[in-house]
Amino acid sequence: MRAEDVVKQVVCAPPKLKLPGPHHHCPGCHYGIILRLLCEVIEELGIEGQAIGITGGGCSARWVAYLDVDMAGGIHGPGVAIATAIKRIYPETIVFTIQGDGELGAIGLGSFMAALLRGEKLTTIYLNNACYGTTGGQMAPTTLLGMRTTTTPQGRDPRTTGFPFHGAELAASMRGTAYSGRVSVHTPANRQRAKKALRAAFQRQIEGVGYTLVEFLSPCPPNWQLSPSDCLTFIEEKMIAEYPLGEFKNVAQIDY
Ligand SMILES: Cc1ncc(C[n+]2csc(CCOP(=O)(O)OP(=O)(O)O)c2C)c(N)n1
Ligand code: SF4
């Protein structure tokens, strides 16, 4: 075959909304995959001109520099409060927060609960890696029972540290929530389902229905002290057992 007869076709390319340059996530972290899905969904929904993202204090904090949409680096905790202010001042915008489990379930729990109670028309991308990744793997509200972390070296004991926090089920139980689901991206099929869930959540915000949340299970190889491939087994066997995947709420209307 002559070189000029070769047909070149792009079959896979970085999403248009991912700014060029490397990202800092550890090998085996799934945050990069989730970032990609987020870019693709915003682009496919055609909302890049209206979208405003708020990051918090965890390993997703630097997404302010990775996404080619308006972004604001929040602080560790009050992401949904900052997002609420933006959405109420500019109701035509599509506002999303990206928050870790330490953030949403601990330091930011008050802001999260308040936004849920008010049914703020936001989308929260909630990253559950069962620990505080950034700061060295301390116990988070989502840490599994018996799981060893730097602050639970003997394994998490519910008698002293309570039981795991279920953010997606909590959101689904609130009347002001339009969409809540839990997904994972540890297999190709799950990645497809995760993208569908993210799209559905943004769609409900576009329709102005209510609060929307997608919880992503994600591994943290250095802090779980597992190889990237063993992390996949851990998600399948341990994480999903505590945090079942699925769509917990998806409504087109909220009765006021
Ligand atoms: C007000 C405040 N308190 C504490 C910290 C330190 N801090 C930064 S990130 C973090 C934990 C992040 O954990 P998580 O939200 O689960 O996100 P991950 O790093 O796992 O993505 C903490 C405690 C901070 N930056 N600001
Ligand atoms: S510390 Fe954990 S959550 Fe943070 S980038 Fe590394 S693997 Fe991902």
Bound chemical compounds: thiamine diphosphate, iron/sulfur cluster
CATH class: Alpha Beta
Which superfamily, in CATH terms, is the homologous superfamily? Thiamin diphosphate (ThDP)-binding fold, Pyr/PP domains
The largest sheet, given as strand count, sense and whether it forms a barrel, is: 7 strands, mixed
Supply the CATH architecture. Answer: 3-Layer(aba) Sandwich
Distinct helical segment count: 9
Indicate the overall shape. globular
Number of strands: 9
Number of domains: 1
Taking all Cα atoms into account, the compactness measure Rg is 18 Å
Low-pLDDT residue intervals, each spanning 5 or more residues: none
- Strand neighbour order, sheet with most strands: 2-1-3-4-8-7-9
Strand content: 15-25%
- In CATH, the topology is named Rossmann fold
Structural class: alpha/beta
Averaged pLDDT:
97
Secondary-structure element sequence? HEEHEHHEEEHHEHEHHE
The helix content is 25-40%
Distance between the termini: 67 Å
